[in-house]
Structures are given as C-alpha cells and as structure tokens.
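haha ok so turns out i had the wrong file open the whole time. this is the CORRECT one, sorry everyone. sequence first:
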Amino acid sequence: MSRVNRRLLLAAAAGAAAELAGLGLIGSAAWLITRAAGRPELAALSVAIVGVRAFATGKGVLRYGERLAGHDVALRAQATARERLYRALIPAGPPAHRGADLLSRMVDDTEAAQDLLVRCLLPAVAALATGLAAVVLALFALPAAAPALLAGLVTAGVLIPGVTAAAARRRSARIAPARAELAARVADLVHGAADLAAYGAGDRALAACAEADTRLAALERRRARAGATASGLGTLVQGATVSAVVLIATASGAGPVVTAVLTLTTLVSFEPVLPMAAAGERLTGVLAALRRLREVRAAPPAVTEPARPVPVPEGPPTVEIDNLVVRHGPDRPPALDGVSLTLTPGRRVALVGPSGAGKSTLLSALMRLVEPESGTIRLNGVEIGALSSDDVRRVMTGLTQDPYVFQTSLRDNLRLAGPEAGEHELAEAVRRARLERWVERTGWDTVLGEDGRTVSGGQLQRLALARALLNDPPVLLLDEPAESLDEETADALMADLLDATHGHTTLLVTHRLRGLEGVDEIVVLENGAVAQRGTHEELVRAPGYYRDLWRSEALTSGR
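then structure:
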C-alpha cells in the first residue's frame, strides 16, 4: 500500500473515530447526568466520569489527526492532479481549450481532487460510521426506536443528498461554462484595455462582461437557495426523528436514563450526516471538474514517443531532412511537401519565403513538436523518431517565433535555458546578444512583467536570443528573430545574430534578406516546397521570390 493510501485510511479512520468519540461523549454525559440525579454512590458513576473525560480528550486529538492527515492527502492529490495535467499539456498538440477556459481547468478544476477527499469522501465515511453506531446503540437500548432512527438517517444522509446532487448536476452543466465565459470576458478587458479604448469599444466590452456576471450570479443564487433548502429539510428530518424517538421511548415505558441517552445520541448522530446534502451537491461539481480534466488529459500527444528510445548518436551533429511531408490536419493541404535539406556541423542555413510557406513548421518538426506524415529526419544517421523528444530538443532547439517572458527576475528568465549557469555564463550570453547596456541599467534582479509587457520588442527579442545562446544547443534553430521590430532595430539584431552564430550549426528562419550574404546556403520555401536554393549571390541573379523580395527591400531602403 502506498504512503498516500495509508494516510488516506488514517484520515478516514481518525475522522470516523472523532465522530464516534463525540457520540460516546454525549451518550456517556447523558447517562451520567440522569444517573447522578438519583444520587447513587460515587463508585457507580466513576466509569461514566472517566468515559466523559476520555471521549472529550479523544475527540479533540482525533479531530486534529484527521485534519492533519486529511489535508495532507488532499493537497498531495491536488498537486498530483496538476502535475498530471501539466505533463499532459507539454507533449499535446494544439489544445482544444485555450485562454481563460484552460486556466479555469488548471486552477479551479484541479481543486476538485482536494474537495473530493476533504468535503466528500472523508465526511461520508465519518457519517456512515456514526450512523451505524447510533442505530446499533438504539437496537440494544430500545429496539423499537431503531427503525425510526435508521429512517431519519437514511433520509437526511442519502435521499436528500441524492436529490440535491441530481439538481446540482443540471446546474453544473450551466455554471462551469458561465464561469469560463466570465473569466474570458475579464481577461479580454484586462489584456485588451488599450485596443478597447482606442476603438471606443470599452462600454460594449464592459456590458458583455456585466451580462456574463449577471448570468453566473443568477445560477449561483439558485444553487445557494437549493443548498439552503436541502439544509433546512435535513434539520426538519433531524427534529422529526428526535421527536419520534422520544415518543417511542415514552410509549414503550423506557426509563429516564434510556430516554435521555437515546434522545441525545439521536440528536448528535445527525451532526456528521446533515453536511451530506452539501457534499452531494459538491460531489456533482467535483465529478464534472474531473471530467473536464480528463478531456484535457485525453488530448493526443503531438508526437509519438518511442517505447524504447535509443541514445543520441555521438559526434558533431549532421541533420538530414529527406522528402519531409507534414500536414496539420487530415483534410488540410500539406504544410511541408517533400522538403529535403542537410545541415552539416558549423553550417548556417537561412530559410526564407512568404508567410505560410512552412518555415516554422520545419523547425517544429526538427524539435519534435509535430509528427511528419512521411519522409525522414536523421541525426547522424538515426531517425529522430527513435529518440526521445527531450533528447532531440537537447540537440536541436533555440529561439521560438513568440518568445515568452515570465513574471520573474531577469536572471531567472535567462536561467530558464541554463539552470546551472553562473554569473559569467549569463553575462557572456547577454554580451553576445548585445543586451549588456540594458541589463546594467535594468538590473539582474528586476522582475520583468508577465508576457514581456515591461520590455520593448527589441529587448524581448534580444533577451530571447540571449536565452537561446545560453542554452547553446549543438544545432541552433532561430525562428523570425527580427519579427515585429522596426527597420533599424531589426537590421542591428540580425547583424548581431549572424555575428554571434558564426561557426555554429544554425538554421535561421527569416523574412529579412539583409545580412544573408554571410550564411552558407539560403533555401526558399513556397507552398511547403523548396522553390529555390543557393547562396545570396546566386539567388539575386535568378528570377523568383528571393530576387523579387531583394529588389523590394532595396527599393524601400533606397539602396
């Protein structure tokens, strides 16, 4: 049995024992009080006195143990649920759920694992143990009262929660989408505030957000009313059951001791049972949340990992791409259609072409982020499909098209690519990316805004480049490093990049032609296929996309 299961059993046992101690406390106290009214000798009351003290002390100790073990297991279960979700998202293809909806599943729905234990499973075990003990006590004390007690406990602990859960199931199907819609509306207001203000659409966005909030609030109010109704019904059942037990005890001629003990234990036995109505409602939400998590985890991986990956071949890497075909959907045209390319050690190749030509798709295939339909990619003669994806990305990785800046310090943002890097390695990467002046001015420990909102476009790209250079993979892949930069900044960045990668095996995706005179080969992609290839001098002399783009750039810059 695993450690988690042992702690779960310990928590369940402690919770049930705490409730039983409470039942024993009330029963023994009722017996003691009523028995003491007859003024017996002290010796006749000693056992009850000891029992009251033991039950009172034991209930507190057991409750503490139940809380300690139960919350430990619950938090571990929540952490495990999130870890599984993260592990499912990392190798998955494009997620069907994005933005606020995905965030809601990652935050709110993963808490369902905690609630399943703390608010549903453990209370149910305690209620069951207490109810059975109360019914057994009634059978011994006054058998005629046992059926009434059993009926009341079943009504309050099974029937009412069942009805509540059925009603909550219908509401849950509407509340979860309503909550996700409100989260999406709020995210749009926060992240799109500038655009909404620029186009005068702020009032409409606020109105849409308010409508989403109103719909969710109405659903939440209905749920609260249903919960209050269930709680009230449970209290009525409790009162009716206590009254029935008192009437049966009176009609049966039971003595005052039996009547008092049975009445108070009946009253107390409902304490762990009444919360079952709320637990039934919560269980419906928990099960729906777990289903939503399974939907995310069921997303197929972007690539198939080998059952027994082979080790990465030794030596400087030579990458051979042979007749590669990649398709992003079964009914879509190929993003890459028969591309062949060879990267030998130290060779720098530039990929150019119009948007949608397949440049970024080729880099994704090299990093094992997409699965080719046909063709091969070999690393020193070994197909990369036989290697683990992590091993492939340790050899071939670099700058992605949309670099992300995390809300942490500048130093930690860089160390994402080199966790063990020292100060000298960090400074060298920053120097090679020509970012040292900004770092000196900003400071290594300055917290950068989430998603790079506190840095300029040029600083963001250079920071991402420094991160790629710090990682220093054997094959450096660079995807549009000058994207969205002004002409002057883009030219400077490209010049620095080409200087920094001199002698390093590099595959550069770019739509800018300036500076490409220094690369070993230029490959032009159009419609997923290789349209031209050669050096800069060869391509500017040949008719085609490259020469047309070169002339257009020359005309724009006045060269």
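The longest strand covers residues 319-326.
again sry for the mixup
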